[in-house]
Amino acid sequence: MRSAEPHVQPSPTSITAASPPRTHDSALRGRAARVMPGGMFGHMNAALLPPAYPQFFKAGDGCRLTDVDGNAYIDFMCSWGPIIAGYRHPVVDAAFAKRVSEGDLMNGPGEAMVELAERLVDRVGHADWVLFQKSGTDATTLCVTVARAATGRRKVLAAQGAYHGAVPWCTPYPAGVTAEDRANLVHYRFNDIASVEAALAANEGDVAAVIVSAFRHDFAKDQELTDPAFARRVRELCSQKGAVLILDDVRAGLRLHRGGSWETIGVRPDLSAWSKAIANGYPLAFVAGVDALRDAARSVYSTGSFWCGSASMAAAVATLDVLDAGDAVNHMARMGDRLRAGLARQAANYGIGLRQTGPSQMPQVLFDDDGDFAKGFRFTSEALHRGVYLHPKHNMFLSLAHGEADIDQALEATEEAMRVVGKG
Ligand code: PMP
Questions:
Q1: 183-204 pLDDT, tens per residue?
Q2: Which residue from 181, 217, 250, 375 has the least number of CB within 10 angstroms?
Q3: Which pLDDT tens digit goes with each residue over 271-311?
Q4: What residues have CB less than 8 Å from 360, skipping those under 6 apart?
């Protein structure tokens, strides 16, 4: 059974775990509420999480986080994806610090930009060129703009419920968005080729691009792997109709495959958008494209004051080395499988229906018959109380820093948390 509305929250009384001390966190929340609208913004707003969760953190190390009150956690969010080698990875941080010590932002980029571009063109399956930005939203938006410049068309087909960023053309939230902002956005259903065909037919001759997620990782929903037949047919249709196929690899990039998530199914996009994990937490994004779109990419005025900072680029080069040396994709898959097997065993022991979906490197864990997420909130609150930071609704992330001992320690906590959920 699928969960109901993504933003439904259970009542606080249905969540049992007692909170660890949070005096500093509360004080910071109070101060933030006076000087920032709502005290916090966006996806990291702790108001969306069970009440026991901290808002503020002071340190990260490997796969562990410490909040501002000194409570330590084994972390399964990895800063919502960017941390892929582990917090404060010494090799990545040294590369970053070295660039900072000589100059990060200057009147133009440093050598690191060319080196990173060469590395990415070698690595990413479909890439003949890359352009750098700072956020995933920058990258998806630039993909759409390049596609329009290349085709002279207006419409963009996106999957219903997919997240591609936080600007008017694609934000999932209506505030401040006009009908005109969305006039050229057409929805299809992920893995449903008939819905793509219908959207193409209804907008014949005016479709600039079809944007696809690496797999379906919509908030608060079961995840769905990409049906290879769907991917192949979307590719074929884009080629036939002269539309640009954009892969949004912002969230999954480097976790499913070292050279692009759809390399796992042998389908290549025309453009791909990347960010999150590429510099192990330092701000960076890129768009990769095929030769046929090189002129269109050159024609678009793409720039930003911070886009050419060298330190993040040096950190990205180091991140790629660290991931390759650690066989990161396989490592994360193994650790994710270990976590998943343990949770499945525990749920079965307590007679609890659990749905674990998506790739093991990015696990989504939802409870059956949990329309208001009360079980999920209780489970994650209890785990948090025992030193494990999980998310009750969003997919989680493994990193190279998660080892077997960390997974096993986390499973000791979830055993207790599952027992509490089992008691009802
Ligand atoms: N696309 C996907 C698939 C994402 O997961 C995200 C971020 N959650 C974005 C785009 C936007 O990235 P950013 O938050 O860096 O702008």
A1: 999 999 999 999 999 999 999 9
A2: 181
A3: 999 999 999 999 999 999 999 999 999 999 999 999 999 99
A4: 332, 333, 334, 335, 336, 337, 339, 340, 398
Same domain, 249 and 106: yes
Q: Does residue 250 lie within any of the structural domains? A: yes
Whether 47 is covered by a domain: the verdict is yes
Asked if 332 and 407 count as a contact pair (C-beta separation under 8 A), the reply is no
Based on the fold, state whether residues 293 and 180 are members of the same structural domain.
yes
pTM for the model stands at 0.97
Helices marked H in 277-403 — which ranges? 294-299, 310-325, 328-349, 374-385
Task: Report CA(315)–ligand 1 centroid distance (Å).
Answer: 20
256 plus 401 within the same structural domain = no
Q: How far is the CA of 421 from the centre of ligand 1 (A)?
A: 32
Domain that residue 375 falls in: 18-80+327-423
Residue at 13 is within a domain:
no
Residue 213 CA, closest ligand 1 atom number: 3
End residue of a domain, out of 325, 340, 375: 325
- Ligand 1 site residues, Cβ closer than 6 angstroms: 135-137, 140, 163-166, 213, 248, 250-251, 275
Query: Which residue, among 415, 380, 420, 398, has the nearest Cα to 46 in the 3D structure?
Result: 380
For tokens 């509360």, name the residue.
26
